[in-house]
Amino acid sequence: MLYLIGLGLGGPEDITVRGLQAARSCSKLYFELYTSLLPDGQDLSRLENLVGKAVLPCDRELLENGYEQMLDAAKGENIAVLVIGDPLGATTHCSLYLQAKECNVPVEVIHNASILNAVGCCGLQLYNFGRTVSIVFWTAEYRPESFFDKIEANLKNGLHTLCLLDIKVKERSVENIIKDRKIYEPPQYMLASEAACILMEIVERRRRTGSPTVLQSSTRCVALARIGWQDQRIVCRPLKEMCHVNLGPPVHSMAIVGETHDLEDEMLRMWT
Amino acid sequence: MLYLIGLGLGGPEDITVRGLQAARSCSKLYFELYTSLLPDGQDLSRLENLVGKAVLPCDRELLENGYEQMLDAAKGENIAVLVIGDPLGATTHCSLYLQAKECNVPVEVIHNASILNAVGCCGLQLYNFGRTVSIVFWTAEYRPESFFDKIEANLKNGLHTLCLLDIKVKERSVENIIKDRKIYEPPQYMLASEAACILMEIVERRRRTGSPTVLQSSTRCVALARIGWQDQRIVCRPLKEMCHVNLGPPVHSMAIVGETHDLEDEMLRMWT
């Protein structure tokens, strides 16, 4: 059996009782850490203590190239991949799921909270969100704006937008890729303030070039830092001010506020 | 302390370890059951056995009128409201949260999976969903179509739509309301086939009256029955056929498929 076990958003104790039982029945546990962040050095051992088993950290390479080995093992014994959030949020785990089915390996998904539903804790109603977008790091050569147009489409329909912020883990520099060196850059997590600056830059540029946007420097944004952790922080500010808000360490995400009703406004006032 | 504890989607074991610890620290546990379904008679006792405490079922009336009492108690001891899915998906719990804050009662939300992220298990990517809609029961006098226009807007943007299906628990007939009798109708849960029939009726009517829709009788739909339960079922069919698909008992929901990429198509083929 292959288990895909969601760990939720906070510490090891956010695993479900069912997830914990499944993990304890496994002979091998992989921990997938390239789509999210391990809070601190302690946590893998805390997770290991809770489960009572060793947990093997695995990266995209292992997960995408080590499928066969993993699925072979899962034919005779229980294997689990532990994933922060909900297991089927990311495409990688969908392909693992599919390959398991193709190899006739029974596979079970154990769901958990992810930022896509936990964002409700800021008081914006989940039913009033449009499409979720990902804001990516800009480089000198690569400054995509496709996420911006999706935010605009949501705002035109009165809808909020959840913005997931870029995470770069185990990336290599162009030089190291060319020289085929397995030297990895330090991980990078986009902060809400950085995301706000990117959005402000697009707003300003489009205004100057005569294509004003629905998103304004005064549009309310909600920054969500470390949701589900003990030190989570939520702050609501106009976009322009959000560029200067320091919410501490990652993981951050941000919601752009569309049309609101009274209860939503009341909730947002708690974070201003 | 007031805890709002998400129970996730399946049985009692879908509570998180953190949620279980919090529940065990409480002197009173309320179980909110009017926005979702208790799988069978057994489950409240199974939940009670797991937590090791009595659980008081509570309905909307108690929750909305019994706030003060609950919040008063939460000043001196730990109280929890247990909610199927994630606690802040529904507006009721947002107002409880707000009122707790206003009364200076510390409140903690313990997140869990909800259909809004677990729908990813059908293989449609969560990033490709637009606004979530609720399809409500039609009566002879009340046949709203606002959800339909939201589905249309999503389809025009190539996006999938998660349709939550109506649940009627502890509703009274007009006669019983007028006579002020607390006699409640049996609970009603909309099935995916019923939802498909409502959508088909709107498609047909608009076609006849010369306003053809993007949603077609051939549009693929994914019915999701009892997601997270041991006997969950997922079926993908054209809308027209979905009207006749029997997926067994509730809770059902349904996704309307927008534009798909290869991995999504591959996943959907598993359910056809």
UniProtKB/TrEMBL annotation, chains A, B:
Pathway(s): Protein modification; peptidyl-diphthamide biosynthesis
EC top class, as a word:
transferase
Q: Write down the Pfam families for this protein, in alphabetical order.
A: TP_methylase
**What EC designation does it have?**
2.1.1.314
PANTHER family recorded: DIPHTHINE METHYL ESTER SYNTHASE, DIPHTHINE SYNTHASE
Query: What superkingdom does the record give?
Result: Eukaryota
Q: Which InterPro entries match?
A: 4pyrrol_Mease, 4pyrrol_Methylase_sf, 4pyrrole_Mease_sub1, 4pyrrole_Mease_sub2, Dphthn_synthase
Q: Does the keyword S-adenosyl-L-methionine apply?
A: yes
User: Would the keyword S-adenosyl-L-methionine turn up in this protein's UniProt record?
Assistant: yes
One record GO biological process: methylation
Catalyzed reactions per annotation = 2-[(3S)-amino-3-carboxypropyl]-L-histidyl-[translation elongation factor 2] + 4 S-adenosyl-L-methionine = diphthine methyl ester-[translation elongation factor 2] + 4 S-adenosyl-L-homocysteine + 3 H(+)
Q: Name one GO molecular function term.
A: diphthine methyl ester synthase activity
Q: What does this protein do?
A: S-adenosyl-L-methionine-dependent methyltransferase that catalyzes four methylations of the modified target histidine residue in translation elongation factor 2 (EF-2), to form an intermediate called diphthine methyl ester. The four successive methylation reactions represent the second step of diphthamide biosynthesis.
Family according to the record: Belongs to the diphthine synthase family.
Under which name does UniProt file this protein?
diphthine methyl ester synthase
All residue ranges annotated as the Tetrapyrrole methylase domain in the record: 1-241
Q: So where does S-adenosyl-L-methionine get bound? A: 9, 86, 89, 114-115, 165, 252
